[in-house]
Amino acid sequence: MTIFESIWFIITIAIIALVLIIDPKNSVATSSTSAISGFFASPSSSQNFIYRVSAILIVLFYVLTVVLSFN
Predict the structure, then answer these.
(1) Taking the model in full, what pTM does it have?
(2) More confident of the two residues 3 and 43
(3) Is residue 36 part of a domain?
């Protein structure tokens, strides 16, 4: 197993873990009683961080998949 395959495998496990850990029901803090206003609320800074980390992991996953397909 090459270093790229090892990194690809670790990124895959990290993406799966992030998807399982994030609870979509609690992703936005609802301060009002209306369900529609909770839909338009902005996420907290920690949720933005998790979204950015997951986006970076997904991009790395695709880049490594392309690199591995050429090897």
Answers:
(1) 0.70
(2) 3
(3) no
